[in-house]
Amino acid sequence: MKYKSQAVAMPYFIAAIGLFVGQILFGLVLGLQYVVGDFLFPSIPFNIARMVHTNLLIVWLLFGFMGSAYYLVPEEAETELYSPKLALGLFWIFLAAGALTILGYLFVDYNTLASATGNDILATMGREFLEQPLLTKIGIVVVALAFLFNISMTMLKGRKTVINIVLLLGLWGLAVFFLFSFYNPTNLVMDKFYWWWVVHLWVEGVWELIMAALLAFVLIKVTGVDREVIEKWLYVIITLALVTGIIGTGHHYFWIGTPAYWQWWGSIFSALEPIPFFAMTVFAFNMVNRRRREHPNRAAVLWALGTGVMAFLGAGVWGFLHTLAPVNYYTHGSQITAAHGHMAFYGAYVMVVITIMSYAMPILRGRQANSNKAQVIEMWSFWIMTISMVFITLFLTGAGILQVWLQRVSEDPMPFMMVQDQIALFYWMRLWSGVGFAVGLVLYVVSFFIKGKEPEAVAA
Amino acid sequence: MTNDTAAKPPAPEREPNLLKEVMPGPQLAILAEALFLANLMIIPGLGFVLLVALWLKKRHSATPLERNHLEQTVVTSLWGGGILVGVSAGIFLLGGFDNPVSWVVGVLYFVCFHATLILLGVIGLNRAMLGKRWRFPILGPVLLDEPGR
Predict the structure, then answer these.
(1) Which 8-state DSSP code applies to residue A179?
(2) Is residue A321 part of a domain?
(3) What pLDDT is recorded for position A291?
(4) Which of A229, A282, A397 sits opposite B21 (nearest CB)?
(5) Deepest in the core among A256, A264, A362, A368, taking most CB within 10 A?
(6) How many folded domains does chain A comprise?
(7) How many interchain CB pairs under 8 A, A with B?
(8) DSSP string spanning A343-370?
(9) What is the per-residue pLDDT across A256-268, written as a single tens digit (0 to 9) for each?
């Protein structure tokens, strides 16, 4: 690695992978609970397992983003990190807070956890994805601000590149929009309205900037294409992402009590939301096709290309599938949403974090790329996880279409739980696809422990 | 007396043509692939009409590379569109609109086939941008120097 302080990224990446494994284990528990309702009840009820599954996802992606920033920002700024000690201190604070929160979910009754952590003073808990206790939320803000101070100071004392600026813009946006998690109006419509300012403006707004910056960084490194060319793509992508994504928030405002004009705004702008993801796919293929050298880390190149394709499919195509108001009238909150959520998170954010880990981890361990054998295992894990996720998405989509029909379209609509019985076959197939995904993840972890001779770069 | 020529600041270097730098391939080929994708994503139907009009107007004057992309996109649009709409219609006509199985199979088929065409279009667009030939797998016409033609 070019700068010694980039090494602080390593513990962040290791923690991210560890928490990713935890997330998938709870995903399997949930998958089983869908078909065997009392599995692990009452030790781990469905609502708790779901909360742990989604919260672990968010926390490990945040670890991934922070690790990526600690690796990327010094190299782009051409200077050492402002304070490596602060970065390491924050790592342990964030890990401890995250672990305590998850243990709290698992071992303390949620009501007791709420009253013990100050929810009576400022009520912020009990909302999907934002279930964290008040103390944890405050901890996240403190850690995020200290982290942003550290990387902003690093950039200010060094070179200001487009990639660094876009990444910081995304990370500052992430912190700013999280502040809306402290705003919890008693009016349920208003609550949901601002709740989406965290959830939507993260994943379909500022996180896209982070994703584009990380992808651009890795593509510069592995293809050798001119920075100027990649930066121009980056400008186009982030413009498209913000123009479509910000007003596209409206697609969450259908049928929840907001004014009807949101059906037009939400439909039109969110119908355009696949475009930045489409641009990212073209971008990734274009850069790899015009590469000037064959980078020895073929696995990182594969993850980068996969990110482009899967983000477009998951976020773009599966998002468009149910984003128009007349369609969403039937599909709102069905398993089609779950299908979109799974593939979009995997394609856009899981894969981009793995892309940069795949690129940076060998360098952090003192080599340009892992051995061929390790890379082959890693590429197997890519294909197994990706194909499994495609099947998870297809089965959930099938379940969702049938659910919509039986519950909302049919002349004799069935109640929710009766419909769940009818779509159990899809849930079983989704569960087995999830097992496949877990196998892929195990292979991914195994690939870190395989030794061998480092491959060499060749000119393309 | 001052030397005017020496006093003049050096002429600024010409700005590079950014579009050409990012897309060195022929514009006609890029336009054909872009219309193929636009037909699938933003302007269904209209994109195809524009693509066919472009093919009719340029097919004799185009270079071999441009003709390659024009031919591939027109033929694949015809076959792809026919299969996409035809099979979807077949699923609903055979299964019935009031049958949930038709909707599960029909929607999944349409989304998967449509997305596949888009991803193949992305590869085609990249090939055009880089000034390289391209053949859509299965649906695209066989290239001149390929075995069997």
Answers:
(1) G
(2) yes
(3) 87
(4) A229
(5) A362
(6) 2
(7) 56
(8) HHIIIIIIHHHHHHHHHHHHHHTTSSS-
(9) 999 999 999 999 9
Does residue A175 lie in a domain region? no
pLDDT digits (tens, 9 = 90+) for A131-188: 999 999 999 999 999 999 999 999 999 999 999 999 999 999 999 999 999 999 999 9
- Cα atoms in the 13 Å half-sphere on the side-chain side of A199: 19
A459 forms beta bridges with A293
What ipTM was reported for this prediction? 0.90
Hey, which residues 67-126 in chain B have their CB within 8 Å of chain A?
A: 100, 103-104, 107-108, 111-112, 114-115, 118-119, 122-123, 125-126
Q: Which two tokens stand for residue A256?
A: 């929840």
Angle between helices A46-77 and A351-364 (to 10 degrees): 50
Domain range for residue A296?
A: 207-449
Q: How distant, in Å, are the alpha carbons of A47, A91, A383, A430 from that of A41?
A: 11, 34, 34, 21
Helices in A248-292 by DSSP H: which ranges? 261-271, 274-289
Q: Could you give the CA distance from residue A62 to residue A91 in angstroms, rounded to a whole number? A: 11
CA distance B79 to chain A (A): 21
CATH of the domain at A305: 1.20.210.10
Domain limit, last residue, from A102, A136, A160: A160
B140 Cβ contact list (under 8 Å, min separation 6): B72, B75, B76, B134
Q: Provide Rg for chain A, Cα atoms.
A: 22
| pLDDT at position B15 | 57
pLDDT in tens, A311-351: 999 999 999 999 999 999 999 999 999 999 999 999 999 99
Amino acid at B32: A
